[in-house]
Structures are given as C-alpha cells and as structure tokens.
C-alpha cells in the first residue's frame, strides 16, 4: 500500500505541474479566407472567455444542422486538447491559395504525423474542415476519450469550468484527485493479482523455487505500474487540460513509461540469468559461468542506452546528431585506445573459441598458471606461488596456448641409468620388471607404453621408461609418479641393481666375486625369476 501512495503522489505532481494556456491570442476577424483564419476562428470562439460555438461551427463544411456543426467543432477541439496537440498559429500558412505538395490539391493538414485524418480544404474561396474530417470526428473522439469518458466530457458545465485554482479549473482539480485515488487503488489491487501470474509464468517444473519471491513481487509491481500509466493516458484527456498542459503531461507519462519498462526489462533479465546459471552448472565447461555475468552486464548497458535515447527523443533532443557526434568521438577514442579495443575483441574470441575453461592450467607466451577468471579485458591466472597474473586477452588470442587441463593422459617419460657392471640377464630381468610395474598399476595406460634398453651412455646403461597416466589433476599426477618411482627403486633393490650417476672420482673397479668385501650379484635365472615374481606380487597388492 505504501507503493500505491508513492505512485499517487508522483502522479499527482506530474498531473498538476503545468498551468492552462489558451490556443489563441487576440480576437480574430471571423473570416475563412485562409487556413490560418479558419483555425483561428475555430479555436478562439471555443475559449472560456470568448465562448461562441456557433461562430466556431462556421469552419465545419456542408453541415446544414447548426447543432451538429457545433457538436463537431467542440469535439474536434477536444480531440486536439486530448492528444496534446498545441496549434501554433504563427506556423499556419496565411496563403489563401495554398496547394498541398503531396496531393497537389488545396488541402492543409495541421498535424500530418500525429493526426493526418484532420485537414482543411478550400471550397469556393473559403477554407473549411473537410467532409472526410467531419465524418471521422466521432470516431477520433471515441479513440481519445474511450470507455464512456466522452460522456463525462459532454456533461461538464461550461460555467463551472471558468473557476480556476492556479490556472486549473476546479472541476479538473477535483476530478484529477478522484481519478488518482481510484488509479492508486487499481494499481495496488492489480499488483496483488499479477503476483501469482508472474510466479506461474516464471516457474520451472524442474526448479520451482529458483526465482525468489522478492523478484517476483518487483516484476508484478512494475507490470502493474505500466498498466496504470496506460490507463492514465486513456482517461487523462477527459480532464480537458489545455493542449500545452496535455503535451507536457503526455510527454511526462511517456518518460515514466520508458523508465518503468527499462526497470522491468532488467528484472526479467535477472530471471533469465538465474535460469542460465542453472543451465551452466549442468555443463562441463566452467567458462559458461564466467560468460553469463558478462552477457548480463552487456545487456543492461544496451537497455540503459536504449532508454536514454528514448528519453532524449521525448525531450526533443536531436538524437541523430547526438549519435553522430558520439560516433565521431568514439572513433577518436578507439584510435587512442587501440590496445583496449584489441583486448575486447580478444575476450570475444576466447568466449567463442573456448580454448580453455576456469581451472585449466595453461602455458604460453612465457606465462603459465591456472585460469581463475576471464574478463572483458584480461584473463587472470594463478601461478604456482599462488600469485595472480593478469594477461591481456588480445595477447592470449594471438599466442599459442598450451592447455594442460584438457589432457586425458599425462606422459611420464625418463631414462633409468644402471652401472656398466650389471650382467645382461639381470638387466633383462630388470627391464621385464619395469614393464610389469606399468601393467600392474591402476593409473597407467596399458597400451602404447615403452620400456627398452636403448642407450649405452658415457657412465651408464640407459633404459627408456615411458608410459601415460590416467589422472585428472596435477596432484594425482604427482602421486602416481611417486608410486611408480618407489616401485622402480624397490625393484632395483630386490634384484640388486645399482643406479649409475655422473662422477669425477677416480677409483679401481673390483670385479664381482674377486673381493670378499664386494657384493655378490645373483645371476641364476631361476632365482631371479623367483625374486621378480615375489616383487611384482607385492607391488600389485600394494597399489591395487
């Protein structure tokens, strides 16, 4: 109810913010020799101070019934007043031989855009409202004064309307207040009725409680205000304000409607955003969750710009010239801020191509890190030391980005160097044991793995160890590598394998078995097979 009171106060300030003005100046010569004289006669003799409708009715063509002519003349003025069409007499031609350039006939249309049905025509050297205009006056009158308000207009006593308060007739003040009270009650009731309708329309069967009640109430309220404004525009002409007042009130109502419609679109956008966020949560790409807020901001900016342009046009601002000036200024700004424009285009390309998503580890252009946020201008990466680095989107769009986050398998490859005194049979068993480690670990790929003795280096016999790991993140990758490396070290200890390493020390090598203090290597194939089988069984059970 508080909102209804606010609406009443606001509408009241708008309704009574103007003062009545007449559509005429000094008393005219009641002749019809030009469009100027005819319209002057029509309007002047329907003013409160100079009310002579029988003289005004002379401008109605070919009507023998004086009462009907008076009625049509009065109705025509009410149409002009109700539409807020103020007749600027100084702009009306005084040429008695005026010819319309479109029809090439002696026609004159005062309001070709707003009211093309009303025009004057020259008949026997005098200008009258045309027969077509006279025929359409009742229809136009009902359009301006709908739902029986035309009856109210005709019942208003002329004498009562002469009493003014601040230039506004007493009956207009009383009628306006009564109408605003009724309109406020209508607005309050309508908002209550619209609330369940809005809830039903915006509700989803899968997510019935997704839209909060507060947002539903705001949407219903804004829709109710729009309906109330339209109702006010329909019945406002019944108060018979002057054309200048009606013009100001009509323009004010259009501005208010634009603002309310803008707010309604923003609230509807909030509803759409909630559904898009729910949809994005169900997708595998996390980049969609970053795209939705950016699209929402862009849509809000577009709505506001459209609303501002609409309001400026209603205030008679030359929007075309303004847009042209802004375009030239925008071009100059774009030339001065090429890097910013480049980054904006880069952000669009990132969202379209989707080379990575939130959480992926990317590497390229000398920078690497986990993607934290993708903005309009920069992409934020979290590096290994938890610091945040912002990379311009234009740079990312032009560089080769390596996305480590989309890897299905992660390669694990290195060389295992053993000493040159390792017997061939022992080296072969060690190689077989390495293959068994791969085959018996749950996180290794069982195809396309390579374990081969492939190099005789300066200080070691090198075995290539290459396999792919089925892990989803860096931590799991490290854990799996640790398990494989522990297995390799334990296998070497089990078989008695010694790892080689680069050294500059000079020493006398003792052959195995020649020195009592030197370790004796087992070379018996059966014993080695037994040791290998025991090790693989233990490794398999440990990493199962």
Summarize the structure.
The protein has 544 residues and is of the alpha+beta class. Helix content is 52%, strand content 12%. It starts with a helix and ends with a helix.
What does this structure look like?
The chain has 544 residues and is an alpha+beta fold. It folds into 4 domains: 146 residues, no CATH class; 147 residues; 50 residues, Roll (SH3 type barrels), CATH 2.30.30.60; 134 residues, Alpha-Beta Plaits. It is 52% helix and 12% strand. The chain has 16 helices and 13 strands. Strands 9-8-7-6-10 form a 5-stranded antiparallel β-sheet. Strand 8 and strand 9 form a beta hairpin. Helix 14 packs antiparallel against helix 15. The radius of gyration is 44 Å and the shape is rod-shaped. The two termini are 70 Å apart.
